[in-house]
Design goal:
The structure is a single chain. The protein has 95 residues and is mainly beta. It has one domain. Helix content is 4%, strand content 43%. The chain contains 1 helix and 6 strands. It is elongated. The C terminus is likely disordered.
Amino acid sequence: MAELHIIGQIVGGSGFPQSSLFCKWGVHAGGAWRLLSGLKEGQTQVDIPQTGDTAYWSHPIDLHYATKGLNSCSTSGVPIIPHILDIEIKTVVVV
């Protein structure tokens, strides 16, 4: 069985006209992947920046997936990249 651990955080968001922001997020894996631990979706707290337009959340992400074979990696949409990833979240919601 192959396993994948995703550990990181949603740092923040900027570029929105309102300053009170939170983020609803979700991870979508292919059907061959089974979530063993962690939450595949969630929501950050609200941040209202005092200066600037960047809302900071520092929301932790800690997921553990498993699949029965490595052949499913190429069809499941899970990237294998051996260094730090910056993921842009586009589902920021204005409160």
